[in-house]
Design a protein that fits this description.
The protein is built from five helices and three strands. With about 110 residues, it is of the alpha+beta class. It has a single domain, classed as Orthogonal Bundle (Arc Repressor Mutant, subunit A), CATH 1.10.10.10. It is elongated, with a radius of gyration of 19 Å. The relative contact order is 0.15.
Length: about 110
Amino acid sequence: MSARSRKSPAEVFAALGDETRLLLVARLSGSGPMSIARLTAGASVTRQAVTKHLHVLAKAGLVRGMRQGREQLWELDPRQLQEARRNLELISRHWDSALDRLRAAVEGQD
């Protein structure tokens, strides 16, 4: 991934921090490219709202839109999710290390 296409973790996590956007990512991850009509089917969110959410996700590098005939299809771009996962794993390792040090300090006091 080029430095240009890499987004800051804060931007990615902020985009994923909205329930509607998280649901859109989940739908796209399980179904492949989808149109706005398919993404809004059965949802309580308008097409206009979904479009705005998709643009936020696109800006964060999580999805990309493509034209297919008259339709705009949206698909998940997993690279940013993989980077977010690496960030979470790093944070988890740091917490595990800090908890191990705390445990050793507490057990050393007995």
